[in-house]
Amino acid sequence: MRLCALAAALFAFAVLLPAASARAADGPDAVIAAIYQRVAAGKGEDGGNFVYQEPQDRARWLTKSLAALWNAEDKKTPKGDETPPGFDPVSNSQDPKVLNVKVVLEKSDGKRAVVAASFDSWSRGLTREEQDRNPPDPRDRMTVRYDMVLEDGRWKIDDIRGTDDGKPWSVRAIIKQWNGN
Questions:
Q1: 28-177 classified as CATH 3.10.450.50
Q2: 3-state secondary structure of 114
């Protein structure tokens, strides 16, 4: 009986340990690549909403501190008003159609990392039909950076950063300022 219990424990250890370490071994760039693979596969209707739209999405993709900050600001936002950040930070736009994604791990120390995602977009006010007929303008190549943290054995997003007309933005800073904080 003890032998069976020991064998079962060893089996569980052998199966669960590699699975847990695989999450961290996937790397922060693999997490961001998976996000953009899903975003680019769509027709631009949802962008990266699945990363941040609902509290359960935030729990999956974001660090505990960023998710808590976002959830708190959502609760302060009057019902019917737009919640932070007011645009899709994953596509850095209101119109989240992206193509030709390239994800690069810019730096990592094993616990924190910066991952850059660059992609073609349409930010010059084209209608959806015009976007479908015309290739993106090279001037519309976007880069969004992700500050990643290894938390509970998984790489999570701690901030999303980009620029709008040359002015830098940070999701964390936007959320902190959302309701006049």
A1: yes
A2: strand
